[in-house]
Design goal:
alpha+beta; four-stranded antiparallel beta sheet
Length: 241
């Protein structure tokens, strides 16, 4: 028997897909209704072993060419010192240069005062062994400011993965406790949602007596992981008597 309607096959396929989708939706709703959602969290503390530093070299005056020359001279000296202290050139960024005029207000009128030439040099230190020495040498060479210092842990990603595993164990422990209280049997995890990111959650002061006599302490970073886990409930357990 042949169908005269040319759209009967697409319609049949669409109907089958809708029925299949409804089946999956119903199953998902059933699992959600018969499951437990818990939040697991964990943290790992680690002492930073790397740092990024932003130096600024700035000069002001009337002659732009002279100002640019002064800034470049200080910048080159700083870069030479960094290389001498075993800092890789790939960890030094000195391309950011700013040149702009400054004005002052006299009797309600804005008049040109001078020019400012500024260069920012960003440095990444793979080790903190020469941290204080590098800053002292930079200031001695004419660096105007130390604008930003950030400490970080080199193996932060692997530590975060460990924190995630501990967070799952924490979530399962909570779910087991809830299931036992409700006289239910806990099943497998059916969905895991990561709520945190692989970034340090904060800094705390740490004792670092093993670090020579440095007055600079990077503190201690706390790497946190937080997840939501959905567990299914298999069946009710026998009631306690």
């Amino acid at each position: 028997m042949k169908h005269s309607d040319p759209f009967w096959k697409p319609t049949l396929i669409l109907t089958a897909c809708l029925l299949l989708l409804m089946t999956f939706t119903s199953a998902a709703q059933s699992n959600a209704a018969n499951g437990i959602k818990v939040t697991g969290s964990a943290s790992i503390k680690a002492v930073p072993d790397q740092a990024s530093i932003s130096f600024t070299v700035e000069h002001s005056g009337q002659k732009l060419n002279s100002l640019k020359t002064q800034v470049d001279q200080v910048s080159r000296k700083l870069i030479d010192i960094l290389v001498e202290k075993k800092v890789e050139k790939t960890n030094i960024r000195s391309y950011r240069l700013q040149v702009y005029p400054r004005y002052q207000n006299n009797d309600g009128k804005s008049r040109h005062k001078d020019f400012v030439v500024r260069r920012s040099i960003e440095v990444t230190l793979d080790s903190l062994d020469n941290y204080d020495q590098i800053i002292d040498l930079a200031l001695a060479q004419g660096v105007t400011r130390v604008d930003r210092i950030q400490f970080r842990v080199s193996d932060q990603h692997s530590l975060y993965q460990q924190a995630l595993q501990q967070a799952f164990k924490d979530a399962r422990k909570k779910a087991l406790g809830l299931a036992k209280t409700a006289q239910l049997q806990l099943g497998s995890a059916v969905r895991i949602e990561e709520q945190s990111r692989s970034q340090p959650a904060g800094m705390q002061i740490a004792e670092m007596s093993t670090r020579r006599q440095s007055p600079s302490l990077p503190g201690q970073q706390e790497i946190e992981a937080r997840i939501d886990v959905y567990f299914e409930i298999m069946k009710a357990t026998t009631s306690e008597r």
